[in-house]
Amino acid sequence: MTAALTLYSRQGCHLCEAMHSAVLAACDGRDVDIHVVDVDASPDLARRYGLRVPVLVGVDGELCHGRLDDDALEDYLGGF
Fold this sequence. Notes:
Blueprint: E1 3-9, H1 14-27, E2 32-38, H2 43-49, E3 55-58, E4 61-65, H3 70-77
Parallel strand pairs: 1-2
Antiparallel strand pairs: 1-3, 3-4
């Protein structure tokens, strides 16, 4: 079964870039679909996430925001 992750981010955000790199490294060699969404592409998403980006979301909801929570990601991926 493939794990699914969504990373809500924005262009030019160093925290977003760092989380994206960390997620890619943590998921290396695993069956994971990572979808990156630019919150500034949608007024609704920009309002919803505002300055909280980056936000990493799994199928059951938010895993972490701001910085990668390695334990939360590992727990999530362990379910697949």
